[in-house]
Amino acid sequence: MLSLMEGNSVLLHNNVATIHEDDDILWKFGAENSLIAQINRENQTFPDERFRDRLKLDRQTGSLTIMNTRTQHAGRYELEINGKRLSTKTFSVSVYAHLPVPNITRDFSQNSSSSSSSSQQNCSLLCSVVNVGHVTLSWYKENSFLSSISVSDLSISLSLH
């Protein structure tokens, strides 16, 4: 499993020093095994528009670099080498989006008790984000976990007191 942040590049390495001149290299993506890159003899082709200007094939090794990744590029990649024998290798790629900076607000209030001459100070913190998906907000005090909340809906706001 390869994990990276959106906008970064990832190298799907073949682990072969060199491919043979008569080998056909096929890179496929997703559950539907769509052809995204191919080397055969002298030709390189990149037929899938989802990867327009984002793919680079190493002619010597058959390794594939995906540049400027987006979350839509997460998934299963399969390398198929057709030559004297057929070999395949599978990669799983996760691409995480950058989260917006959470908004943290503080509310200080003074509580005084009528039965006591001492007053107590309260502090309330609120952390919130909007328009996010698959996110967890957590509060920690030093290394101690206090609370958390998770959401997978892209359209709601999320708050943790």
From TrEMBL:
<dbReference type="InterPro" id="IPR007110">
    <property type="entry name" value="Ig-like_dom"/>
</dbReference>
<feature type="domain" description="Ig-like">
    <location>
        <begin position="102"/>
        <end position="161"/>
    </location>
</feature>
<protein>
    <recommendedName>
        <fullName>Ig-like domain-containing protein</fullName>
    </recommendedName>
</protein>
<dbReference type="Pfam" id="PF07686">
    <property type="entry name" value="V-set"/>
</dbReference>
<dbReference type="InterPro" id="IPR013783">
    <property type="entry name" value="Ig-like_fold"/>
</dbReference>
<dbReference type="InterPro" id="IPR013106">
    <property type="entry name" value="Ig_V-set"/>
</dbReference>
<dbReference type="InterPro" id="IPR036179">
    <property type="entry name" value="Ig-like_dom_sf"/>
</dbReference>
